[in-house]
Amino acid sequence: MSEKKIGQARFCDTGYSYTLSLISGKYKPVILYCLMEYEPVRFNEMQRYLGKVADKTLSQNLKELERDGLISRRMYPEVPPKVEYSLTERGRSLMKVLDQLCDWGLENRPK
Predict the structure, then answer these.
(1) Where are the alpha helices (DSSP H) in 1-111?
(2) Residue 5 lies in a domain
(3) Which of 26, 81, 86, 108 is most buried (most C-beta within 10 Å)?
(4) Is residue 7 part of a domain?
(5) Residue 71 resides in a domain
(6) Is the pLDDT of residue 48 over 70?
(7) How far, in Å, CA of 37 to CA of 92, rounded?
(8) Which residues face 71 on adjacent strands?
(9) Domain residues for 77?
(10) Which CATH number covers residue 55?
(11) What is d(CA 98, CA 108) in angstroms, rounded to the nearest whole number?
(12) CA–CA separation, 30 vs 102, rounded Å?
């Protein structure tokens, strides 16, 4: 087994760092989990699922997830406006990771 040297290593160059940059924060993992379980989901449904989250905060998190290609936003031309969010293929590929986090939590949470 070879020893790795930390001298020239940089965390920001790792895949782990990149993944965290996409899903870090208080709400992004929960939004992704919600979409994994219930997609498609409307804004108000998502807000109720998350609990006490400001419109602006939820909107910003959804925009960032959309910008990063993890979710898609579909707007229907009706009054009042209807908008639904769902996972993209890229977002679905991340579900294996979230499933493993769920499994670990179930196995290790206090009884």
Answers:
(1) 15-23, 28-38, 43-50, 55-67, 89-93, 95-108
(2) no
(3) 86
(4) no
(5) yes
(6) yes
(7) 11
(8) 87
(9) 12-108
(10) 1.10.10.10
(11) 15
(12) 11
